[in-house]
Amino acid sequence: MNSRIERYPGTLLQVVSARADLSAGINAGAVLFVTVLTIVAAQVSVPLPFTPVPFTLQPMVVLLGGAALGSRLGMSSQVLYLALGLAGLPVFAASPVLPQGFARLLGPTGGYLMSYPIAAFVAGLLAERGFDRRYLTSVVAMGAGLAVIFACGVAWMAFGAPHVGLSAAIATGLLPFIPADIVKIVLAATVLPAAWRFLR
Description:
The chain is mainly α. The chain has one domain (2-199): Arp2/3 complex 21 kDa subunit ARPC3, CATH 1.10.1760.20. 70% of the residues lie in helices and 2% in strands. The protein has eleven helices and two strands. The protein has a two-stranded antiparallel sheet. The longest helix is centred in the C-terminal third of the chain and has 25 residues, at 135-159. 40% of the residues are buried.
């Protein structure tokens, strides 16, 4: 059993679906589940006085969801999340100054939100290549996805609308979050290898 699972070229969702002989409908349910988790994680937010970017658990959910579902389905879960937000549903992190809906994507945190499908795709793509089966490579997969989130978020703050300049964007949108996000990555990277060990 161990060797068969090791050789299976797929994500955790694909292996579980195959072993349980589940229909393709499980994919839609898994996408919806990760979308809901992203919405819930957005509500666990802490506003910070020195930056418009709140501290949330969303990046961890985005990366875990992408790695568990794979590149295509992981990206789909975050596209659905953004679509719900664009439709005006209150799915984005609560903020006293930033509106819900389409205007949120045009604000200073828009780059982070728009990066979620790409970050989930990257984490899922690496998971499809087996990065999620060992702790250290799982850290690499999560770190690569997090780098996408930070790169898009800081670039939008620096050069998008309203732009604040690169140095200010790094100071308010990157540096304050690195310690906490390293902890989140270290913790998140334990989840999928543990799930694979359980499956074996």
